[in-house]
Amino acid sequence: MADKKLDDYEKREQIAIESGKESLAKAPWLFSRTNLSAKGFFFELKENNIVHPDHYAVHCVDGVGTKLFLGPWANNFALQPIDGIAMNANDMATGIHAYPDAVNLYFAVQSEIEEQHMGEIMSGFVEALERIKIPSAPFDPNIGKIETASLDEMISLGKPGKGWDVGVVMTGYIRKDEVPNLNPKPKNLIVGVSSTGMHSNGFTSARHTLFSPNYRIEYRNEWRKHYHGKFLFDDMPAVLEGMTVLEALQVPTALYTVEAALIGRRFNNRDIYGVNITGNGLANFNRVGEGVSFEITDPLDPLPIHRLLIQESDWTPKQAYEKQNMGMGFAYIVPNLDIAEKVVSMINNRGEHIAKIVGEVVANDKPDLITRIHKPYEGKEISFVGYNN
C-alpha cells in the first residue's frame, strides 16, 4: 500500500462505489421507500407514511477525512468536530427547507484520545450543533447515539497514540410539498457563497504537497516518504497573509444551514435549491438537471490557502477546481434576477459569508450536464462534463 500514489484516491473511490452498487443492486427492496427525485443529490429522502405521512426523512452521512491529522499536530481537537457536522449539515442545507433532527456519532480511537481529549472533541460537536440551530424551527438538532471503539492497533495518525476517526450520521425532515424540484432551467441564475478555506476536502493531497518529510510531521517511516513539500507547521509563507500553514489548513468548514433555511422560508419557491461545493469541487453542479449547462462567468476568488496549494503543486487549473472549492463553498440555483439579488443581499447583510451572482443556467443540447468556468484564476475556460456518483 505504501508504494501507491495516495493522491489518486478519486480513482479508488470510484472503484469502491461501483463495486458497492453491484452488491446493493441485488437487493432492490433496500430502496423501496427512497424518493428517487433526489437520486444522486446531496441527501437521500426516505418515505414512511405510517410514522410521518407529511414529511420525508432526510439522511446524510460523512466524516472529516485526513483533515483529522491536524488536531494532533496542533494539539487542538475541538475544530475538526465542527467539520464533521458541517459536512453533513451543508449537504442537508441544499434542500433549503430541511431541518436537522438527530446526529449519531461513531468514534474509533486510540487510548490517549479516550483518556485526554474526548471532552475537547465533544465541545467541538456542541459548538457546531449550536451554530446550525435554525431560528423558530419546529425542533432543534439533538444528539442521538454515540458509540466509541478502542482501536489502538487499527487507528493511527501522524503522532503516536493520537489516532482517531469519526463517522457522522445526520437525519432530518422536510415537508413533502417543500422538496425542491431539482430541475434547473435556462435563465436560472447561480448565486455563489464564499468558503472559509479548504473545508474538509483534498487534505491528503494538500498535506503531501505542503509539508516536508519531517519526523515531527509523520513518525511512521512507510508514510513519511509521501510528503514532498518544504514547509513545517509554523512556517508563514507570504501568500497566507499572516497565518501559519497549519493555521490556514485548520480553519473549520463554513456552515450554511441557517442561511439556507432563512432563504427557503422567505421565498418558498421550489425552484430554489443549494449546491454544496464539496468533494469533486465545482463539478458538483452537475449532480441534477437535464439539458442544461452551468456557466460560471464570474467566479469567486481563490482564498490564500488555495493560492498556496496552486503555487506549490503541479495542479492544472482544472485539477484545482475539481479538488477544491476555490473560494466558493456553496451556491444557490434561483429562478430569476429579482430573487437572486435579494438572496445576495440577505447573505451579505448577515455578514457571515460573502455572496454574489456568479453565473447562469443555459440550455445545452449535449447528453451530459456541463459546468463551465469562464474565468479561472489563470488560463482558458474549464469544463466539467457529467458527474460520477
Biggest β-sheet: strands ordered side by side in the sheet: 7-9-6-10-8-11-12
Oligomer: single chain
In sequence order, what are the helices and strands, one letter per element?
A: HEEHHEHHEEEHHHHEEHHEHEEE
Q: What is the overall shape?
A: globular
Protein structure class: alpha+beta
Radius of gyration based on Cα positions:
21 Å
Instruction: Pick out the low-confidence regions.
Output: none
Amount of helix? 25-40%
User: Which whole number gives the mean pLDDT?
Assistant: 93
Which architecture of the largest domain does the CATH hierarchy give at level 2?
Alpha-Beta Complex
Continuous helix count: 12
**How would you name the CATH homologous superfamily of the largest domain?**
PurM-like C-terminal domain
* Overall structural domain count: 2
* Largest sheet composition: 7 strands, mixed
Describe this structure in words.
The chain is α+β, with helices and mostly antiparallel strands and 389 residues long. It folds into 2 domains: 32-177, PurM-like, N-terminal domain (60s Ribosomal Protein L30, Chain: A, 2-Layer Sandwich); 189-203 and 251-385, PurM-like C-terminal domain (Phosphoribosyl-aminoimidazole Synthetase, Chain A, domain 2), CATH 3.90.650.10. The protein contains 12 helices and 12 strands. The chain has helices at 9-24, 70-74, 80-93, 111-116, 118-131, 203-210, 221-224, 245-250, 257-267, 304-312, 317-323, 337-350; strands at residues 44-47, 55-62, 99-109, 142-150, 164-175, 189-194, 273-276, 292-296, 328-334, 355-363, 370-373, 382-385. The strands form 2 sheets. A 7-stranded mixed β-sheet has the order 7-9-6-10-8-11-12, with helices on both faces. Strands 1-2-5-3-4 form a 5-stranded mixed β-sheet.
